[in-house]
Write a structure and sequence with these properties.
This protein has twelve helices and 15 strands. It is α/β, with parallel strands linked by helices and about 375 residues long. α3 crosses α6.
Length: about 375
């Protein structure tokens, strides 16, 4: 999975990786989950929302939220549309409102789950949306899990009891068993795909940035947020580096890039860092993407996961139970930590994670916390 700030070239990197894998003999699928799809532009082939065979071993799809909602959410959407129509909204407005926030993220993950289940492809390459949207995508399964475990059983039981009582007296649509079954199926599928995405033996999340201050700062934040949610980030690709041949006009840019590159090497020393020079021509089309992939990977196999840090550890330090969360670029001013109803909650900037603690820590509460070498160590007692 490739993600990064908009404009850093992640689509080109993702597409070149897919082309490289296909040429190595892997049956490869590249999925674009960016609402502003540019995969067709990179491949110089019309891709679209329907899975398409691009060349030998290479398949591509630009995920359509509309198609996915109609495919995966029919029962739930029908209920919501009926409910909004009952409130007096016209049919078109009801249809629009029935596509609730989170549906797009969930539908994209359902495609991933579907293709993993099929076992048809050796490698799936995801060209994801810019950082913020990718984080919404990856944080959704855990947010859904919290809702399903806390409120779903109550809602289902209440609907079952209330439905026969109120039916003779009102025409308000109540959720049917099929609606609840649809929600439950969604939950189980999202739980499974999260397990796939957090498995470092199965999934690699790779950051793409350019050697400038804004991109570096966003990449630091993205890396920290991804680790907060437990995702295995194993490499950083620095794109669009000026070579010395660019001449006097770009001299100041090169000096600035040199400074940023040194900072990147220090800040991300635990990751595999790759560099790509700014190409003489736009890397579009199969031939140019293959050349880009050759320069990026050489003789390496892009499908092999690289060493990555363990995002969350449940351990003992000096005989005390400790939750260790890797947050390399966070500081205590940006972190809020608290216990809510027996749950450990960490808030970092605009992102919140509710931790489902192992049985050995159930019932324990955070007693103290401190930063140690990029880890937030939380003592539980």
């Amino acid at each position: 999975m490739f993600t990064g700030k908009g404009g850093v070239g992640k689509t080109s990197v993702a597409a070149s990786t897919a082309v490289t894998l296909a040429e190595m003999g892997y049956k490869t699928l590249i999925l674009s989950t960016d609402a502003a799809h540019s995969l067709s532009d990179a491949l110089d082939v019309s891709v679209g929302s329907v899975l398409r065979n691009i060349s030998d071993n290479l398949y591509a799809q630009e995920v359509s939220v509309i198609d996915s909602v109609n495919t995966h959410w029919e029962d739930l959407k029908e209920f919501l549309a009926g409910l909004f129509s009952f409130q007096g909204l016209d049919y078109i407005s009801s249809e629009e409102l029935a596509t609730l926030p989170g549906f797009d993220e969930a539908s994209e993950l359902l495609y991933v789950d579907e293709y993993v289940r099929s076992g048809e492809y050796d490698v799936i390459v995801m060209d994801s949306a810019p950082t913020g949207e990718s984080l919404k995508l990856l944080s959704f399964p855990e947010a859904m899990s919290w809702y399903m475990e806390k409120f779903f059983p109550i809602g289902r039981t209440t609907a079952k009891i209330v439905r026969p009582i109120v039916k003779p007296f009102t025409k308000i649509p109540l959720p049917s068993d099929k609606v609840f079954e649809s929600m439950e199926s969604l939950y189980l599928n999202l739980k499974e795909v999260r397990n796939h995405l957090t498995d470092p033996e199965m999934t690699s999340i790779r950051l793409v940035c350019t050697p400038d201050r804004m991109s570096l700062n966003e990449t630091k934040r993205a890396y920290t947020y991804l680790l907060l949610y437990g995702y295995p980030v194993d490499s950083l690709i620095v794109n669009k580096i000026f070579e010395s041949e660019t001449g006097e006009f770009f001299r100041q840019w090169r000096l600035s890039q040199d400074s940023i590159l040194k900072e990147i090497d220090q800040a991300f020393s635990s990751l595999t860092i790759s560099r790509i020079n700014l190409t003489r021509r736009e890397p579009t089309g199969m031939k140019n993407l293959a050349e880009l992939g050759k320069g990026l990977y050489g003789d390496l196999d892009p499908s092999r996961p690289l060493p990555s840090e363990t995002p969350v550890q449940y351990t003992k330090i000096n005989g005390k139970h400790v939750v260790r969360v890797r947050l390399p670029f966070a500081d205590k001013k940006r972190v809020n930590l608290y216990n809510r109803g027996g749950e450990l909650v960490i808030e970092l900037d605009n992102w919140r994670r509710v931790f489902f603690l192992p049985q050995t820590l159930s019932g324990k509460k955070p007693a103290s916390a401190e930063f140690n070498n990029g880890y937030l160590d939380i003592e539980m007692s």
